[in-house]
Design a protein that fits this description.
Four copies of one chain form a homotetramer. Chain A contains 19 helices and six strands. Chain A is mainly alpha-helical and 467 residues long. In chain A, the strands form three sheets. The first copy, chain A, has a two-stranded antiparallel ribbon with strand order 1-2. In chain A, strand 3 (197-198), helix 8 and strand 4 form a beta-alpha-beta unit. Chains A and B meet through strand 1, strand 2, helix 7, helix 9 and helix 10 of A and strand 1, strand 2, helix 7, helix 9 and helix 10 of B.
Chain lengths: 467, 467, 467, 467
């Protein structure tokens, strides 16, 4: 015989109590206790509304408020006992309220259902966290842009295919990172707005007969408007999926930054050095200094992708309206949010304390014929050769340099001029790294001046967003 | 010795030709040929720009235009040969152009790179397809809302946990579906706007020294503005991922509709009957009529999720700027787009030809004590019992009915009244399915009148969106 | 200035201490404490080995054993304090050991590294859990087969496309479920065997100079053999991925069983009734009895898929050998294992207490022309008509029955015989559900006798596996 | 009015023909035509069996064989027209057969269904492809081991966290790669064996009444045995999922190798140089030589993961038995298989033509204090210091070297000895890279001798596997 749990609030029609194993499998309170603040705020708003439409009188309202506030205090102080048999945070708080204030507490659940209640709580959580993540993104961007401002003249090899391609400055590279983050900010913003609708007050799936004032609830709880359709309100988890996707993208971007930090920290690259405060050692190899933080940042994309797939899978082919399956929405969102928060925080610290080795960057830029494109462009401009041909001639000059084991900038003028008789001594100018970088003045280009403009634009954007 | 392929346009520095196996592995032309129209449009705009900044004279411009248009014609007529050794659509068209118009053709690639070119082509494709998908969503919504309009009085059992819960009307259910689609529309819209930036003209990763006019290009090609940072422009695939996610969500929603169509078509439910034109038979069982279309629609979410994970995985931890890895972005996007397009189209047809069995729906609604919540609400309202207690009493009435093998509406008045002495004869009114449904008049509720309001609101929204 | 954490055991070369934020981000002890028992067992074996090769003398060995056992006791009794600044369970136990027994404790880490230590602990965990899951699978299969034994004559509609197809018995259906579980068992077994290699003793990545006896370690710790290559031993996480996949498959199978339980519990199907002990109610609708357990079981596939994708993503493109990224392997494996364990356990309970409504099943089987294939087969056999044509004729008989609103078995003999003059009165025999079911006697068929054979075979298989 | 397609073989009960749009959405022939050879082989075996049990006489058998063989020839020669309205390869071939040989052709489908037929064809494909992939894995391993044999003395820095850790040889590193592949081989093998069961002859889901001889079929078609349960046989797609997972793992491993090839090809590492035959250039930068092949190999893991998730998603919560959803199983398996095949092939070529720069590897090994662990081990051994303390002292020696900007091996003897008075002149021996490497002689270690043993072991294993 299965061990029985305590009698449930919904147990009127049941002849047997729940098995304890059921509680262990079914209960969400081990994780959804995190929603307590949102649940209490939702209940406060709901009780105001019940008072407004005449279901609670002023004394009852007062009594419920006192009860809820006391419960909030107990939870905050760690004095509240979350019990498995209460199933979820909603039942836990409702039970506690009834215990505290008696029969009046039993009126609170009028004109709502757990279905709309949990949708409300979770949306409030998601809205809150989006705002928090946006704030952290802005903070990280600010750190990156400050660093970028100091490095608009620091030449490094710009890479494609991880091969040296063209000379850029480090500031320009950081602007690229920032642009990724700016899209993350905007993506969160559109998720916020698309889902900023109040589900509370639709009951189980079909609305209620109490004439509840959902406009009032939306206003009180800070939503743009109530949802349009009751059944959709309890079935929809788009708001959670959108956040999971936004975080997957954010952590994908961060995995790219992290990969670069790992590479740049290698002995071979040596472009940066992570502060001892954010590096770790080895239990066996005494010389090791490991970039654990970027490595973990890189890895966190895994959880974020997995969390997204988890909920997408769970939602696949679910019939309407509410199904218990959707209870699986919370743990994955909590995990993604917490990973995103700490990732943004620690990456900011790492960047703030990062030592940039500009000399190593510049040395590296001297390898790999970085000015080859400039040479081809020179041939187009000065020798009036079509680009495709100029490209081919330059390729052959590179081949000669490779054979001699030097950079094209180290070939003699004679050697270079031997390839085409319109090449003049001014070709030397295009073979300078600095000139090459500063020549790229087209909109979005890497020239120091352009990079500064980009930084300025983004700082201005941040200022606007912050207001 | 590996078999050699033809000499490449970029082969100046290479001492050996490409292996044929390399072409087979590396070439994207077996799929990216689909971008041909966007590639030619991009090149047309680019040549106008080159003319504007003095790199092409009017004759050269004219010659390039003639060449490109001829190529477009050949492709359209199926006369153009796509060859593996041309690697990709960009090289195929550039090669053909040079073949056709000679050396002038070699000037076209001035001030751009394949990196920004492919980013442009793919963004043009994505923008185009988003608009197309939005159109199809609107068409499907229109069909659903027309059907909904005809069924605002057709009672069916509203379900939670796939158990009968409360009476709703079929129109209300379809509004729920529509709301899912409306979010899909909005999600696509925000993806469109967030990514509506022109990458062309940033060169390989760092900008160009030609002073190319990217504002002009943006305007010509219909982008809101040029991208801010060159390196980001060639590394970013957010626009593709956003679309993959949008389609994953769309097909997730459709998998839910499809699951319901499958259920409703069963012998057990019998709520709907799919038109013979959109059903299939069995090779062995002569009596079978199978809902293949909803089943495949349900399954298509799989590909959409997989495509999303594919590109997310590919992008994980990629260093900047361009890497060959990103070539894997296209096939998955093409597949998701094509699946989404045909899914929307065929679902629209299925719904348009669907036979609704309203009698079966109503019969079903008579089972499962659908008015139990109304009874509890009655006790709250008339007997002044707190909801939690009213719920418990009703649960016991249900238990009695279950024991007798009938619905609570089939219990005698005496039996019902025996549970509480404030229950009066007017309790019968709340035990009517129609009354129960029409009592749910709160905003978003299922009452016929409310459902009509919701339909009206959505039709108005569509009208606005269409303009 | 970042707040500093405590001095690390590996901190010799570091000029600054770790930031507290680093501990919070980096430490794995909040979850890897679960490995404590495996870590201690690994250390016990390692110390025996160190003694065997002369690095520890007998007193040192004894002292280390006492220390480790004491720590084990403290952890078991909840007296051991897990501290974030200890980073992971390995360092926590090593630190505690040094605290307890002094300098001798510092010798324990000779000839090993955290890299091989964590690989060992995690493999021991995985091996243990595989055995546990296999046991639970066998238990569930036993319950299913017992139930199947009692229902080899209980006719129900076999379905394809969720449409009635051919009559089967419920026992046969449960054998199908069991076969899925049997593959899960075998899949776990092959994962176990493929990964049953000891990583301990390979040091950081390259082996050690101490001449450690890894054969001895393998034997002591119950592995089939030591790993072949040191670098692989610390980089490989296949054993974890294999388990994640095995569980994804197991929970996918269970999601299919669960879907059927949800369907069968609906008002429309009514084939089964879940025990009140494993069902739940609604907070608002007093009549509801919800199949929460099957719904959650169905949903759990989501987490399992997500966990698999998480680690696959993390491992993508990781260079050799050990990287911190792999720390992300544990939480997802723990979650999948725990979900699988409780899912198997509760599904077993649900099935053991499930009420089977055989009358409803049989009633259902009477709808949907289940004997149509038999009729076609009759035409092949008796009227010598090729199957493809027999199929067509039967299709037309079905169409007539549909038009009349009855099952083909309810048509008059005259009506049936009107379609072909070789149809005789004995056609009635093939239109009986029981005859139809029992006619399917080919190997694997649904005839009661065959079903019993299948059950017998599986019971025998279980007996062999248990020994 | 929807446009109508041609009359279907299963259309007896249908009053309207299929819509053309249905064919376009529903038909699998655009991809499952790839199964034609397996379908014909399956039908040949099935007809032998039908003859054996007396359903076909010898003339009929002969006629069917002639027809099928002719169809095979036509397909092979590209003369067979695959038409959308034939839906799938099974119907296409059956239709063609009936066209060719008349009514006898209509007998072929006796005692089977498309459900078992497609399961058979797809299993035959999967079995075939597994064998092919195993062969390619062995070929790649052979190339790696040959290369390894030539580099057991080539010192390079072994890395953890991408930081120099301990000296290893390049051969040892390649053995690590090989071990990954060996597990892939074994994983495929266990998938093969676990799924080596014949589904043919179970009919739609419940068996057949024809007494078909499935043992005979299994033997004829090369399966270990027939499946146990008919319903399972048509519902099960584990064999496809297992292969998708096996390939996801294989391509994950290859993504790790590829990442290393990309890194090693950088200007910064310079450890290897990819043959010009397998590298590519840039359309704009004439100097570029890009590792496109490793980059694409790295990216292919994305598709493999996505394909796995696709089918896992599709199978989630599918009720038994066959559903149309499972049609989505094929395209993803085809794609994964083809990617895996060409990836193995081209990686083999790249490795065979790879230039190894042993000088650069050895130069790199001189940086990063690679002998620090040896120094700590020396302190343990010679100075009898517990490892934990020896680690700390060595850390401080490293810190001194770092400050002086040199490797610890470049410190003066006096400087090293100043840290502990038991350090003697023989400490110099442990600071030699070669000595350090060759000291790691524990089983699995990197000492040249050990590496050779590992290579020998694997070559022997290959020899056994090939037989």
């Amino acid at each position: 015989m299965a061990q029985e749990s305590k009698q449930k609030l919904w147990g009127g029609r049941f002849s047997k109590g729940s098995a304890v194993l059921l509680d262990r499998f079914n209960a969400s309170i081990p994780f959804d206790y995190k929603l307590w603040k949102y649940d209490i705020n939702g209940s406060l708003a709901h009780s105001f509304m019940l008072h407004k439409i005449g279901i609670l009188d002023s004394d009852e309202l007062e009594s419920i408020h006192q009860g809820l506030k006391q419960i909030a205090l107990e939870i905050e102080n760690g004095e509240f006992e979350f019990k498995l048999e209460d199933e979820d945070i909603h039942m836990a708080i409702e039970s506690a309220l009834i215990n505290k204030i008696g029969d009046v507490g039993k009126k609170l659940h009028t004109a709502r259902s757990r279905n709309d209640q949990v949708a409300l709580d979770f949306r409030l959580y998601v809205k809150d966290k989006i705002k928090g993540l946006q704030g952290r993104i802005i903070e990280l961007m600010s750190v990156l842009l400050d660093l970028a401002s100091r490095h608009t003249e620091s030449i490094m090899p710009g890479m494609t295919h991880l091969q040296h391609a063209q000379p850029i400055n480090f500031g320009f590279h950081l602007v690229c990172w920032s642009e990724n983050l700016r899209r993350d900010f905007k993506r969160l913003q559109s998720s916020y707005e698309r889902n900023d609708y109040l589900p509370l007050g639709v009951g189980a799936l079909a609305g209620t007969p109490y004439g509840n004032d959902r406009e009032f609830l939306a206003k009180t709880l800070g939503f743009s408007a109530p949802t349009l359709n009751a059944m959709d309100s309890v079935s929809d988890r788009d708001f959670a999926l959108d956040l999971l996707y936004d975080i997957a993208m954010l952590l994908m971007h961060i995995s790219r930054f992290a990969e670069e930090l790992v590479l740049w920290s290698t002995c071979e690259f040596g472009f940066v050095s992570i502060s001892d405060s954010y590096a770790t050692g080895s239990s066996i190899m005494p010389q090791k200094k490991n970039p654990d933080v970027p490595e973990l940042l890189r890895a966190k994309s895994g959880r974020a992708y997995g969390n997204l797939i988890s909920l997408l899978t769970t939602m696949k082919a679910l019939p309407f309206a509410y199904n218990k399956d959707t209870q699986e929405d919370k743990e994955v969102v909590f995990n993604s949010v917490e990973n995103a928060e700490i990732s943004l925080e620690i990456l900011k610290e790492v960047m703030q304390t990062l030592k940039i080795n500009t000399r190593a960057m510049e040395q590296a830029a001297k390898k790999g014929h970085l000015c080859a494109t400039d040479l081809a462009d020179y041939l187009v401009r000065e020798a009036k050769i079509p680009f495709r041909e100029a490209h081919h001639i330059t390729g052959q000059i590179v081949a000669m340099a490779e054979e001699k084991g030097c950079d094209i900038s180290e070939l003699s003028l004679d050697e270079v001029m031997s390839f085409n008789d319109r090449i003049k001594v001014d070709v030397l100018e295009v073979l300078s790294l600095k000139n090459s970088m500063n020549a790229r003045t087209s909109l979005g280009g890497t020239a120091s001046k352009n990079t500064k403009d980009q930084i300025e634009y983004l700082k201005e954007w941040i200022k606007n967003v912050r207001n």
